[in-house]
Inverse folding.
DNA sequence: CATTCATATGAATAATTGTTCATATATTTA
DNA sequence: TAAATATATGAACAATTATTCATATGAATG
């Protein structure tokens, strides 16, 4: 019953210098942060949500107005607003039967603009 | 056989002023741009790819080194590098058997940092 | 030119996700 | 309190996607 080394599937040697490896491990944000970061960008990774963010950049708006502007169902928009809300990208206030949504902070626009700059190269 | 209006599932009236509606339609980037933008952020929306971008921020690196640093299979990393390459977020150069990857431009870091700032609120 | 090493890639699978449909909740008004 | 309106939400389904596994490609080397 000879024990076999698990196949580590590594290259023969690393090209990186020791100090770069250390540097990477130091500078790398924590696992949880990286996960949250990916979660945040995932929210931007849907064109419906991008559109919602763009229209909200123009003005505070209720769910129904957004749905009409984007020509989508109330339900679809509501579901997506929930995602945006959870990511704290939008905030809302209630006024009677109507709920008005607006952008949560300035980062939203910066992120969108950086993205635009990138794809416009 | 009375014809029924299709249920448009709209609100009774829009809250928005005409000029806001116009404004939205003017300012809104084209459908294709919005789609590309979502595609770009989708690429950031995965923690493996986020990690790859972070390590590449420290230094140019070959596929195998990245795999070892992140403790993932060569194949998984290679697949993800392809996604990053297609989004023009990384570039590469070949040196013999080895392929070295590096960040394509400065936007990558700006976008990541804006994301970080947002989640650290 | 056969072998080895580094990387790429196609197929398969499991997991995630966006929309729809039906319905629930909340608020106002008759 | 019943009806109407605006919004939210759960379930279902189709579509997308990240990883694994097996294998292919490409480059150096004996």
């Amino acid at each position: 019953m000879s024990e076999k080394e698990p196949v580590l599937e590594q290259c023969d040697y690393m090209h990186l210098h020791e100090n770069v490896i250390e540097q990477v491990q130091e500078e790398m944000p924590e696992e949880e942060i990286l996960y949250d970061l990916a979660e945040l960008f995932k929210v931007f990774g849907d064109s419906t949500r991008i559109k919602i963010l763009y229209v909200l950049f123009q003005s505070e708006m209720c769910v129904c107005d957004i749905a009409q502007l984007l020509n989508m169902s109330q339900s679809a928009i509501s579901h997506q607003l929930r995602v945006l809300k959870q990511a704290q990208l939008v905030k809302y206030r209630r006024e009677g039967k109507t709920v008005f949504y607006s952008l949560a902070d300035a980062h939203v626009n910066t992120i969108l603009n950086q993205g635009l700059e990138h794809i416009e190269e």
Q: What stands out?
A: The first strand of chain A starts at residue 61 and ends at 62. Confidence is low (pLDDT under 50) at residues 1-8 of chain A. The helical segments of chain A are 18-27, 31-44, 47-58, 63-70, 74-86, 107-119. Chain A touches chain B through 60 residues (CB under 8 Å).
